[in-house]
Amino acid sequence: MSAPVLDALAASRQRTFAIVAHLDDAELERQIDPIMSPLVWDLAHIAAYEDLWLVHRFAGEPLLLPELASRYDAFETPRQVRGEIELLDAGGAREYLAAVRERTLAAIEARGVDPVVHEMVVRHELQHTETMRQAMRLGGLLAPGEPALATFNGGAPSEWLDVPAGRAALGAPDGVFSYDNERPRHGVEIGAFRIARRPVTNATWLRFTEGGGYQRREWWSDEGWAWKEDYDIADCPDAEAGHPDAPVCHVSWFEADAFARSRGARLPTEAEWEKAATWTQGDLEGIGQVWEWTASWFDGYPGFVAHPYREYSEVFFGARYRVLRGGSWATDPRVATPTFRNWDLPQRRQIFAGVRLAADPEES
């Protein structure tokens, strides 16, 4: 039973080191942007999280470096201060990762594997590799060849997929690993809707910009317009820099919402997105290229129970964060399942997020 977990732990660590292999220690140690952590904080946080869950809580051993617990706790040390406090340097972070992994392997040999907790730790590290890439992109530090976005060549048979009304199952099924916010699986009634077969491309986004998309007040929500004015948002730089036929990336929810209104469309709800993505008669292209904003606020499903700790999901519930679905080019496939729910603030642009439109069915 432990062999697959050992392989997964090794693979996630290999991925972590691979994405920063081209960076020197100074680049790892500086804070690239105030909304992101220094990369070296993420490295040590990965070690601290693994030590907490796989050695301390699972195996009952004391923490390796208890004096670092609060420093590398995501809630006790928010991002805006991580560049101002004393952190382990790059060499120290690597040593911390190695020492914790040695303890983890010893604990597995002595006590075996918990299928939930060990998988959670594997995916936690994989999720941080994407977060680190977000920071690297802000600092112009992505590895050569990244972002690795596909292009859409040729026309699709139809721009829209028509999804009929009906009851659908939402959430992760039994028997697979899932986060607490994906459970419990439950039935929902969903009306008929249309969803775009492909995400919006850079070329299409540039037509929105050139057509006054950032000046047309009627397309923006009050909150979105205030954000745009406050931060002097007049375009999407990545749309201009990217391949015309690649999905637009690094747009906020506010921009995605305004774009949808400009097209006489809307963003899909997350229930619509999941139904379309798992519908056997559907053919959605481009899932996994960019995270796709939905119209839904992040909240618990009916009957939600926090597990194994409330800080993973529950503290983020309410009308503050919008749900994203599907994964991006930087998301490990182990994480990007059809039921996985990502979330972020509607003004955030650092996430690898784009847009897939939805609309009500055409009247016959």
List keywords for this structure.
364 residues; single chain; three-stranded antiparallel sheet; four-stranded mixed sheet; 2 domains; 9 strands; globular; paralog of FGE (formylglycine-generating enzyme); alpha+beta
CATH architecture annotation of the largest domain: Alpha-Beta Complex
Overall morphology: globular
Mean pLDDT: 96
Low-confidence stretches: none
CATH class designation of the largest domain: Alpha Beta
CATH topology name of the largest domain? paralog of FGE (formylglycine-generating enzyme)
> Which percent band covers the strand fraction?
5-15%
Number of helices: 11
User: How many structural domains?
Assistant: 2
- The rounded Rg comes to 21 Å
The portion of residues assigned to helices is 25-40%
In CATH, the homologous superfamily of the largest domain goes by the name paralog of FGE (formylglycine-generating enzyme)
Largest sheet: 4 strands, mixed
